[in-house]
Amino acid sequence: MTQPYRIRESRIWAQARADYLSGLTAEAVCRRHDLGLSAFRRRARKYGWRRSDQVEPPPGEIDLSLYEDIDLDELARTARLRFIEAVEGGRASDARRWRALADDLTREARAFDADFFRGMSHEEVAASLEGMRREIDEEDEALLGPPPED
After folding, report:
1. Bias regions of kind Acidic residues — which residues (predicted)?
2. pLDDT score, position 100
């Protein structure tokens, strides 16, 4: 199935450029910003986005802050989707690796949750999660405005 032609705003391309030059792979940048890999490579070649031209940070001073907003549940979901994509594409070895990664991430997320909510009843956990969701929704609305009406 072919992907539809997508036009992206210049700010998205600027973010993609910054992510790529900071060390993300072209494939990771394209997944993060929903860009086509060939379009990304074409633009990088045209505008000279070369990591070799960047100043190398001293060892141990790599900035990993661009990954701060990604949680284990989101990573596990992405790995499951990649597993499905590999199965549908007939890539069994890739599917096996994605499935193992998804399972590992899910186990790690559950272990974190068990430790975080230790000693709380089921009702207290549900109330805590609802409060967290409400806080996230309020922060999103403050940053992005109210969601559009259906």
Report:
1. 137-150
2. 95
- CA atoms of 144 and 93, how far apart (whole Å): 41
User: Nearest 5 degrees, angle CA 41-CA 78-CA 66?
Assistant: 60
Task: Answer whether 48's CB lies under 8 Å from 17's CB.
Answer: no
How many angstroms separate the CA atoms of 28 and 31, rounded?
Answer: 5
- What's the number of domains the chain is made of? 2
**Does residue 112 fall inside a structural domain?**
yes
Q: What is the pLDDT of residues 56-84, one digit of tens each?
A: 666 776 677 767 777 888 889 989 999 99
User: 120 is in which domain, residue-wise?
Assistant: 72-144
∠ CA(79), CA(81), CA(82), 5° rounding? Answer: 65
Predicted TM-score (pTM) of the model is: 0.47
- Determine the length of the chain: 150
Q: Let me know whether 77 and 47 are in one domain.
A: no
Residue 1 belongs to some domain of the structure: no
